[in-house]
UniProtKB/TrEMBL annotation:
SUPFAM superfamilies: DNA/RNA polymerases (SSF56672), Lesion bypass DNA polymerase (Y-family), little finger domain (SSF100879). Belongs to the DNA polymerase type-Y family. PANTHER family: DNA REPAIR PROTEIN REV1. GO terms for biological process: DNA repair; error-free translesion synthesis; error-prone translesion synthesis. The keyword Signal does not apply. It comes from the Eukaryota. The lineage of its organism: Eukaryota, Viridiplantae, Chlorophyta, Mamiellophyceae, Mamiellales. GO terms for cellular component: nucleus. InterPro entries: DNA/RNA_pol_sf, DNA_pol_Y-fam_lit_finger_sf, DNA_pol_Y-fam_little_finger, IMS_HHH_1, Rev_trsase/Diguanyl_cyclase, UmuC. This is UmuC domain-containing protein. It holds the Pfam family IMS.
Length: 618
DNA sequence: ATCCTCCCCTAC
DNA sequence: TAAGGTAGGGGAGGAT
């Protein structure tokens, strides 16, 4: 049971969404930069990835105001802006969980992000709670990025789903910076119904600090003549990179508090700071305290590591279970590497080991008090091959020699990466067929079908023929519930044990829907012309889904008959890959389709993991 | 000297 | 106590 919680959490967690933002954004960036190269044939080529800025620039720091809460608000048009609302995993009944984001009405009651829900409800009993909606955050974020790219002609550095820097130096030679910022803010609001704030400064640091003054829903510029004064009065806690531990160390050795200003810090002997914080950190801190920021401007930084970890609900009854967790993590990482065409040379295993006798039984699912161990190993070869990485990872796990029952979390990450390399060709790598599948979007002509992916039924298989008559309509209709299709993938109980049937059916249902939507939206999934004319678009899409599910069910049965469990797992991997590939298709899809597919992706993802982990820990 | 490993710290 | 993921940078100290 605990494993279900793990996998569901993993796919639905706010931290996972935030942490994996870069990967989603990269897909968008690639499309953007490719388009830009195309533009440069007609326009003048511009330096997209310039690495440093010596001269003063005009930098905007664009930050969405209480992003998750704003997105939640637009889904609830009946609420006035005066209604306090918070996004949280918990409900007002359970009062468990933390506030992830609170709108400004809620903040007026003292409700803040990070606060426990029971406290938030005590401060503000009428607080409206909204669930996470990751698909929607992604959609809004990319809409905002679209605007920022436009406004800055591609000079946009994405920080997260709700935050970015843009360089508008050249544009602000002829236009007033604040006016430009206000225009961007209006554009963002018009497109997304979400407010953002913009800080303006001569470098990224000053722009970021300016945003603090701009919020909420405003713009603020640090004028060049005011920079000295501005930074001098800035609190140390506001400087980026200056966290809790740095604050404590500083206070211990210098009596300076994080609430003191940069001005104060500069009076401290440099040697004192260095012994407390280290040379590099001191250097950076002192630069920041003078308003200097030498961070390179890089629109598309190269990824240096890629990994996945789990430290929630991890409980291992035996070594085999621990090995299964590791295998599952490696599959996730290898899959991402294959999709991104990245290979690596070094493997890092991270393991949370419970500290004996410390709060041991108090945990429900959390990792509790732990030592965190990490081990690095050079891999036999530059690779992104699932099996190779699994064997290397299991070697490390064995060498760490940790009692399985004390393991509270595991992580796998790959470093020393090489980009753009060819993908592993070993048997495990079925996914490339999917990249082939979706590479076609950008391909000049829509030649289809070297698709060997199990789920990728040919269009012919999916297409209904004109000759199918009204009987078929009735047939299909009988399979439809009021709002949805009925996806029966496994008809016989004997085909698969009933415990797992439900999960697998769920996964394939989601996969089938995603698949059908892709085809539908690409205009390649066709019902008969007559039917298309008589059905509403919604109804048409539903039938198309039902049709696709049917074909996939047949394939699933065939695959199970042929390869048993192995065949099913391969199918599940494909299902996950298929749904994930929606990330590649944002530009092609309608927003409705993209949102649907994103939701199904989550389901396939979690069901897929549940099955693999669950089956091996039975 | 320089690199590497195993941490620690930070941001979002 | 509590949905504790992903990624980057740096330091100490050992290996080369």
């Amino acid at each position: 049971m605990a494993n279900n919680a793990v996998t569901n959490f993993h796919a639905n967690s706010r931290l996972h969404f935030i942490g994996s933002w870069r990967a989603r954004y990269d897909v968008f960036l690639d499309a953007k930069l490719a388009q830009k190269q195309h533009d440069s044939a007609t326009n003048r080529t511009r330096d997209v990835a310039s690495t440093s800025r010596a001269t003063p620039r005009t930098i905007f720091h664009v930050d969405m105001d209480c992003f998750f809460a704003s997105v939640a608000m637009r889904a609830r048009p009946e609420l006035s802006t005066e209604t306090p609302l918070a996004v949280s995993w918990g409900t007002s009944a359970s009062k468990r969980g933390e506030v992830s984001s609170a709108n400004y009405a809620a903040r007026a009651f003292g409700v803040k992000a990070g606060m426990w829900l029971d406290e938030a409800l005590r401060l503000c009993p009428e607080l409206v709670l909204a669930p996470y909606d990751f698909a929607e955050y992604e959609k809004v974020a990319l809409e905002v990025y679209e605007i920022l790219f436009e406004a800055s002609r591609g000079e946009c550095v994405g920080i997260s789903c709700d935050e970015a820097f843009i360089d508008v130096t050249s544009r602000c030679e002829s236009e007033d910076a604040v006016a430009v910022a206000e225009q961007i803010r209006r554009d963002v609001y018009a497109k997304t119904k979400c407010a953002c704030s913009i800080g303006i400064g001569s470098n990224m640091l000053l722009a970021r600090l300016a945003t603090r003054r701009a919020k909420p829903d405003g713009a603020f510029r640090v004028e060049p003549k005011d920079e000295r004064e501005f930074i001098a009065k800035t609190r140390l806690a506001d400087l980026p990179g200056f966290g809790r531990h740095a604050g404590e160390k500083l206070q211990k050795s210098t009596k300076i508090r994080v609430t003191d200003t940069c001005e104060t810090l500069l009076k401290v002997p440099v040697a004192t700071l260095k012994s407390a914080l280290g040379a590099q950190k001191t250097e950076k801190l002192l630069e920041a305290a003078r308003g200097i920021d030498k961070t390179p401007w890089c629109v598309r930084p190269q990824r240096k590591s890629i990994g996945a970890q789990m430290s929630w609900g991890v409980r291992c009854a035996s070594n085999e279970v621990a090995m299964d967790y590791v295998k599952q993590l490696v599959r996730e990482v290898a899959y991402r590497m294959q999709r991104l065409k990245i290979r690596g040379r070094a493997l890092n295993l991270k393991l949370w080991r419970a500290i004996p006798d410390v709060n041991t039984m108090r945990d429900y699912q959390g990792h509790g008090a732990c030592d965190v161990l990490t081990r690095t190993k050079a891999m036999r070869e530059l690779s992104n091959d699932t099996e190779l990485i699994i064997s290397e990872a299991l070697t490390i796990l064995r060498e760490l020699n940790v009692e399985a029952t004390s393991i509270r979390g595991l992580g796998v990450s790959i470093t020393k990466l090489e980009h753009g390399a060819e993908t592993a060709t070993s048997p495990g790598a079925k996914q490339p067929t999917l990249s082939q599948m979706f590479a076609k979007r950008t391909a000049e002509k829509a030649t289809h079908e070297e698709e060997t992916c199990v789920l990728a039924a040919s269009d012919e298989e999916l297409a209904e023929t004109e000759s199918e008559g009204d009987d078929d309509v009735a047939d299909t209709q009988s399979q439809l519930t009021q709002n949805d299709c009925d996806f029966t993938l496994f008809n016989s109980q004997a085909e698969i044990d009933s415990d797992r049937e439900r999960s697998i059916r769920d996964a394939f249902e989601a996969a089938a829907r995603a698949y059908a939507w892709q085809r539908f939206e690409l205009g390649r999934l066709k019902l008969s012309k007559r039917r298309r004319d008589t059905l509403s678009e919604d109804e048409y899409a539903r039938r198309a889904c039902a049709r696709a599910a049917d074909v996939i069910a047949t394939q699933a049965r065939r695959s199970y008959a042929q390869d048993g469990e192995t065949g099913l797992n391969a199918l599940l991997n494909d299902a996950r890959a298929l749904c994930r590939s929606q990330e590649l298709l944002h530009e092609t899809y309608s927003s409705q389709g993209a949102a649907f597919i994103a939701a199904w992706l989550d389901r396939v993802d979690s069901v897929g993991k549940t099955i693999v982990i669950g089956s091996s820990s039975l």
